[in-house]
Amino acid sequence: MWKGRFSKNTADLVQQYGESISYDWRLYPHDIAGSIAHARAQVSAGILNQDEFLKIETGLREVEQDISAGNFEFSIEAEDIHMNIEAALTTKIGPLGGKLHTARSRNDQVATDTRLYCRAAIDDLLSLLSSLQAALLNRAERYAGTILPGYTHLQRGQPVTIGHHLLAYVEMLARDKNRLQDARKRVNISPLGSGALAGSTINLDREAIAKELGFDSVTTNSMDAISDRDYIAELLFDFALIGAHLSRLSEDLILWCSSEFAFATLSDAHTTGSSLMPQKKNPDVCELTRGKTGRLYGNLTAILTAIKGLPLTYNRDLQEDKEPLFDSIDTLTLALKVNAEMITAMEINEDACQAAASDPLLLATDLADWLVKQGIPFRSAHELVGKAVAASVHSGTPLDQLDLSQIDPAFTKEASAVFDLQTALAARSNPGAPSLDNIKAQIARWKNS
Ligand code: ARG
User: Fold this and answer.
1) pLDDT tens digits for 139-150?
2) pTM attached to this predicted model
3) What is the pLDDT of residues 33-82, one digit of tens each?
4) How far is the CA of 59 from the centre of ligand 1 (A)?
5) Quick one: 259 and 350 in the same domain?
């Protein structure tokens, strides 16, 4: 493409080093849509006549079909998807293909393609996030009232339910969706027409191009437009945080599937065995999800590092934006799909949850609250219950079977009414707390959202 200035061919190693076609081929539908919109604007600018436009459009459509049918041979001599498509077009329609690149550079072209690709990926991921929310809601509804201990420091704290626990993840995923919807606004702006860095002396109708491609508006500084990769960094952060949420969910499920907890059973279809130990049923999907979060973080670090020292405007470093972006999108797409399927099929072992939740120490806070309701300051109540807990631990007598009045006369017979899990749960009726009524209302809200 630049043979005029050069007297030697590009060295093989340089070709190998610089090609991006092996991964940016996937931009092809966006590259073709962008080229058709660009060519249409060339008609109103008087660069192409209608007949030439139709030839270019038909040629580009044919190239698109060839690629989707697998009948296209990508060449690394043509470096990237943009030049591969232009070369194929010229082979099909002759020198007229050479008009297409008027008033355009690969710099605004790649920025346009990548934004279109990101927009489509955001829309796909939003729907996958909704499917995972639906899977969690399905299980939250089925086990809405199944009481289990809620943990802090991985030590038993207070009673919650499986419904409440799973809804916590539905909340996280909702924030993830909000972040992507917000990022989409900054993605959906057209850089096409920014040229190599300083626009063009040929005046194309940038608004019309943007409209045809479904962009909301056009960028307002050509230098920023072609070198901006903020939207990629931002998306990679959003993806990394989704990874963090999936990883935390994975960790909960790994614990729940252990013999020590035994709260949950994953389907045989979503677990693996051991080549040596016949009894094993391993939660590999959860472990892979937790592990792949490392790649999502790594990809964010890669883009942040790639852009940090770049002078304006385009530098070839920017080609390094695509592999992390594509990898994170591929990784998340599969992670969201497999997790939704696995969670829908997950069963909760209600007996094990019940056994763990029947530890009366889970209601130590409730006992302190009961003293508070008798007029005792919370700090004193905390200390009295702490003494009762110590007596229970040292004597081996469960807290609900101790004679509490021996610890302090403030503990009257009525105090023992505290040790009822259903009452304890129902009492947690503040907004956001896990009373069954609240949980049911939250499930209904999410189902209607
Ligand atoms: N493959 C290139 C990239 O992904 C396209 C832009 C090339 N521009 C250039 N001036 N060499 O960044």
Assistant:
1) 999 999 999 999
2) 0.97
3) 999 999 999 999 999 999 999 999 999 999 999 999 999 999 999 999 99
4) 23
5) yes
Of these residues, 44, 217, 274, 395, which one is catalytic? 274
Positions in the chain whose pLDDT score sits under 70: none
Q: Distance (Å, rounded) from C-alpha 221 to C-alpha 254? A: 50
Q: Whose CA is nearest to atom 3 of ligand 1?
A: 319
Q: Are residues 139 and 157 in the same domain?
A: yes
Q: Is residue 432 part of a domain?
A: no
Structure tokens at 55: 């030839």
Instruction: Return the pLDDT at 41.
Output: 98
d(CA 216, CA 362): 54
| CA 88 to ligand 1 centroid distance, Å | 18
106 lines ligand 1 (CB under 6 A): yes
Query: What integer pLDDT is reported at residue 307 of this predicted model?
Result: 98
Q: Which CATH number does the domain housing residue 194 bear? A: 1.20.200.10
DSSP 35-48: HHHHHHHHHHTTSS
Domain that holds residue 409: 359-418
How far apart, in whole angstroms, are the C-alpha atoms of residue 129 and residue 233?
Answer: 20
Q: Quick check: is 205 in a domain? A: no
Residue 253 lies in a domain: yes
Q: Is the CB of 112 under 6 A from ligand 1?
A: no
How much is the pLDDT for 203? 93
Shared-domain flag, residues 329 and 292: yes
For the CA of 318, the closest atom of ligand 1 is: 12
> Ligand 1: which atom is nearest the Cα of residue 321?
4
Report whether residue 314 contacts ligand 1, using a CB cutoff of 6 Å.
yes
Tell which of 102, 127, 142 closes a domain: 102
How far is ligand 1, taken at its centre, from the CA of residue 294, in Å? Answer: 28
Q: How far apart are CA 204 and CA 327, in angstroms?
A: 35
Domains of the chain: total: 3
Query: Look-up: residue for tokens 């626990």?
Result: 165
The one catalytic residue in 153, 259, 275, 394 is 153
> Does residue 161 contact residue 168 with C-beta atoms inside 8 Å?
no
> What are the pLDDT digits (tens) for 386-410?
999 999 999 999 999 999 999 999 9
| Domain match, 369 and 234 both | no
Residue 107 CB less than 6 A away from ligand 1: yes
- Could you tell me the CATH number of the domain that includes residue 67? 1.10.275.10
Are 325 and 233 contained in the same domain? yes
Amino acid code (one letter) for 210: A
Using the 8-state DSSP alphabet, how is residue 430 labeled?
Answer: S
